[in-house]
TrEMBL record:
InterPro entries: Nitroreductase, Nitroreductase-like. Belongs to the nitroreductase family. Residues 7-177 form the Nitroreductase domain. The keyword Transmembrane helix does not apply. The keyword Oxidoreductase applies. This is Nitroreductase. GO terms for molecular function: oxidoreductase activity. It comes from the Bacteria. Keywords: Oxidoreductase. Signal peptide: none annotated.
Amino acid sequence: MEVLEAIQARRSIRKFKSEALSDDLIRELLEAGRLAPSGMNIQPWRFVVVKSPEAREKLRSATPLAFVAQAPVVLAVCVDKQSFSQVGDRARELQEAGSLGKSFNAEEYAQRRNRDPQAALSYLVLNAAITIDHITLRAVDLGLGSCWVMMFDQELAKLALGLEDQYHIVALLPVGYPDQSPGLRPRLPLEKLVLKEV
């Protein structure tokens, strides 16, 4: 499938067949996420693969959306809030690869990012959004459906998944074989989205 075809075919799926996903398919999805780009190549995303009915039911207590627990797999896409502590190593890797100038000061960059914890978290979440998009498009390519869910209680979800405080859950991504074929939701025309050409 071409990338544009996957983009055009992707829908938010909220009804799944009960058929389980193989470990190979799950690995394909995670691999697509792993390959996503990130700022300074810090790769802050972490995944919890929720497969067992018991674990999905525990997670159900954190969201009002019942379909989340009914999917055969839920990927909890998280960020490691301590990722900036590795920015020096990542920057050195980028410098060795010729992607950054030799004068770039990675430690100063990390300190600036860490001064405002909310801005730092927003930066990490933005990076996780890229990996989620990669996963959702790969899911379409594999004949699977998914739905990006942000309607959940952070603390209850972390408790259900046994996650430490250093992790922040960005989204729950129920994944499975679709049992529905929703149409394209209304989209604004491109003319309303392009502010100007300069």
